[in-house]
Amino acid sequence: MRGLLITSDGGKHWRKIVGGGIPWKELATDPEWLDLEILADGQVLVGEEGGRHWLATDRTNTTFRQLRTPAKFRSFAVDGTTLHGIVDAATPSYDMVKGEGLWISGDGGRTWRRQKQ
User: Fold this and answer.
1) pLDDT tens, position by position, 8-20
2) Which residues make beta-bridge pairs with 76?
3) How far, in Å, CA of 60 to CA of 42, rounded?
């Protein structure tokens, strides 16, 4: 069974998250391809590289909700509590990807706005 181990005391104690909204058995990639980010308030963001993402519903990180994104993010980054998703091609090409660019959310992924160039 796949899961995520979380510590909040520098590694003295660990807690395993095996469910809570993340369908570990359904993940399309191996665990080494997961994106893990920590928001400034302690919430954990878990994502598949180029796939789905889940954000903890609170600082206890016991339950997660899947983020609805405006396009398929190739990569994801966190700055404080602001989420940044980048839509880009997986390989270099001259073809535009639908929704290509930088997307920003300041409300935990509930709404997104595309960064103007």
Assistant:
1) 788 899 888 877 7
2) 85
3) 8
- What pTM does this model have? 0.80
pLDDT digits (tens, 9 = 90+) for 24-37: 777 776 666 788 88
pLDDT bracket for residue 95 (50, 70, 90): low
110 phi, psi to nearest 5 deg: -75, -40
Instruction: Identify which of 83, 72, 88, 91 has the alpha carbon closest to the alpha carbon of residue 107.
Output: 83
| Burial annotation 91-112 (CB, 10 A radius, 16+ → b, else e) | eeeeeeeebeebbebeebbeeb
Task: Centre a 10 Å sphere on the Cβ of residue 43 and count the other Cβ atoms it contains.
Answer: 19
